[in-house]
Automatic annotation (TrEMBL):
<dbReference type="GO" id="GO:1990931">
    <property type="term" value="F:mRNA N6-methyladenosine dioxygenase activity"/>
</dbReference>
<dbReference type="GO" id="GO:0006397">
    <property type="term" value="P:mRNA processing"/>
</dbReference>
<keyword id="KW-0560">Oxidoreductase</keyword>
<dbReference type="Pfam" id="PF13532">
    <property type="entry name" value="2OG-FeII_Oxy_2"/>
</dbReference>
<dbReference type="InterPro" id="IPR037151">
    <property type="entry name" value="AlkB-like_sf"/>
</dbReference>
<feature type="region of interest" description="Disordered">
    <location>
        <begin position="30"/>
        <end position="61"/>
    </location>
</feature>
<feature type="compositionally biased region" description="Basic and acidic residues">
    <location>
        <begin position="275"/>
        <end position="290"/>
    </location>
</feature>
<keyword id="KW-0539">Nucleus</keyword>
<feature type="domain" description="Alpha-ketoglutarate-dependent dioxygenase AlkB-like">
    <location>
        <begin position="93"/>
        <end position="250"/>
    </location>
</feature>
<dbReference type="GO" id="GO:0016607">
    <property type="term" value="C:nuclear speck"/>
</dbReference>
<keyword id="KW-1015">Disulfide bond</keyword>
<feature type="compositionally biased region" description="Basic and acidic residues">
    <location>
        <begin position="46"/>
        <end position="61"/>
    </location>
</feature>
<protein>
    <recommendedName>
        <fullName>RNA demethylase ALKBH5</fullName>
        <ecNumber>1.14.11.53</ecNumber>
    </recommendedName>
</protein>
<keyword id="KW-0479">Metal-binding</keyword>
<keyword id="KW-0408">Iron</keyword>
<dbReference type="InterPro" id="IPR032860">
    <property type="entry name" value="ALKBH5"/>
</dbReference>
<comment type="similarity">
    <text>Belongs to the alkB family.</text>
</comment>
Amino acid sequence: MAEKSSTKIEEVVDLRTKLNGIFKRKRRTLEEDREIKRERRQTRRNSHESHSENGDSTELEKIHEGITQRALFDDEDCLKIEKKIDEVVANAEKGRYREKTVDRAPLRIKYFFGEGYTYGKQMSERGPGQERLYARGVVDDIPKWIFDMVERKIVDAGIVPKNFINSAVINDYQPGGCIVSHIDPGHIFDRPIVSASFFSASSLCFGCKFSFKPIRTTTPVLSLPISRGCVTVLSGYAADGITHCIRPQDVTERRAVIILRRVYDNAPRLPLNYKPEKNNRNHSLRERSRSPRKARERTSDSDSEDEPWYMKNRMRSDHYKENRKHRNSARDSE
Ligand SMILES: O=C(O)CCC(=O)C(=O)O
């Protein structure tokens, strides 16, 4: 009898050891999995983590003086905000927004809330200073979640005062998407310009020149890493003295940014009956194929449309010569 019960105890102990072993192995593989994922995330992040600088030191100093970055949103915050961005995308696909809220380009969609404005080919009179706000009410109001989940943290961090922000733009980029070099129009937007980045890391480049078909850029004066969850604040020379852009090669995964700005009370505004030009992208969307190959082919065209004055201005000024030199050297290096 005593012998039988001791065998049972041994069996139980043996079973426990076996189970422990199995759980330990499972725990280890889970931990290893997590570690591998962490390393992959880190590698991806590192590729956007180092500054690269090519300007003269005085100019670089002036740019850096006008940039502040804060890691304000942790992973949990990011996940919640990213879910909300996905809801915006879904609402737009269901046609739930006003006509001017959504502006589609092949690899980048902009959602304007609070205020929208004309730029690029949407303007009949082009050139710096020609941008105009749309009439009040033609874009949707800023969603409450942007105030609750994004603006509040930025106000609490002392970056802008309460009630400063009256315009929020979400840019949703697919890999290879970009925003060509520009300065946010100073007659429309107050400074600072605040942006919060989500989904993946990228780089904000300063002082790049773009050429098209195929799309190319010159080496930036400064390439600033922007990680997921970080808030970038531009003012001074960084906002007004040099252009900024997102290059196609810096968007390797889907990325979204929420740009929070203040539109001046007296900024010039279009009348309510303003008729957009024929080639407004919102209207042409239905006619466009969604094929990724066609989208890539179209990128250069439509992104040049985004540039409010840069291309045209260059054709008229000294920049033209500089651009021609760049095009020639790009061709030579082919
Ligand atoms: O994507 C970004 O971080 C910058 C976007 C930007 O400069 C713009 O939309 O005006």
